[in-house]
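Throughout this chapter, every protein is written as a compact record of paired, labelled lines. The reader may check this reading against the record printed directly beneath this paragraph:
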Amino acid sequence: MVIILRYIKNYYENTIIINKSKFIGQIYSVSTIDEIQEILKNTRKKYYDATHNCYAYILGDNQEIQKCSDDGEPQKTAGAPILDVLKKQQMTNILVIVTRYFGGILLGAGGLVRAYSEATSKALDIATKYIKKDVLEIVLPLSYKAYNQVVNLDYINIVDINYTMDVICTIRIDKVYESKFTADINNILQEYDNTYEFELKNELIQ
């Protein structure tokens, strides 16, 4: 079974109130442990008066790094439910922190699990998700005449242009169009060296 993992690019925040306790769900796009540690440090400083700052994160294109923390809540009632929501929604390269301000009413173990799960899910609901796609990138020097033909190829994405005596284009294409692009560019640039050096990259798309 192939699992298509999902990513985010931006920061999202959402607050819910359950039995007078405030749960602030905060979502971050992350790629390293150091980055996560810095965010956690800043969150603890920002919400220094909070009762708990519970969290979970997943890193890697195979979700190979996973960790969660209950931060003083009863074992497996906070961090584990946050992590479980992330895994069920097939997220990666993501950190979720749920900050709790205790409202005076005990929720019990089951209530805490539901509260931290809901805080995570509600925050994820407002987040734009992306999937990762393999693309090929190539830098081509083009005459202005050739450039006017290349821009009409409807399956390419020109990500950078540098106008000099020629037009230096950085072009990205879906990997499935590699043969088609090679044929099309050979037709446009018949005098051009027919060997092209593509660089494999990843692109996040909705």
Summary: The CA atoms of residues 14 and 123 lie 5 Å apart. The chain has two domains: 12-125, 132-205. The longest helix spans residues 108-125.
